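Hi C.,

You asked whether I'd gotten around to modeling the 95-residue construct. I have! Everything is below, sequence then structure, no commentary in between.
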Amino acid sequence: MKKFLVIFGCFIAFFILTIPSSMAQCAMCRGTVESSMGNGRNNVGVGLNTGIMYLFMMPYLLVAVIGYMWYRHSKKAQQERQFINARVSQALNRQ
């Protein structure tokens, strides 16, 4: 579990440190993109689209990771219950 949290923390830190422009979404974005497109520059629009996709994917990625951890934990708990039930039934059959 600790290894997973360390890897997940490094993953998030990597995205935060490498894509700082994607965190700068604001109400003025549309005006900035329209004015830059009018001047013939398309790089602001591409950066804005990348930022939108980044912000769009993070909640889904987080839900997927939490869902996988929950599934894995419930699978382990189910195996433990089955093991205990098998041991109890063996002990009762011996008597």
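If it helps when you're writing up: Residues 15 and 54 are 9 Å apart (CA to CA).

Thanks,
B.
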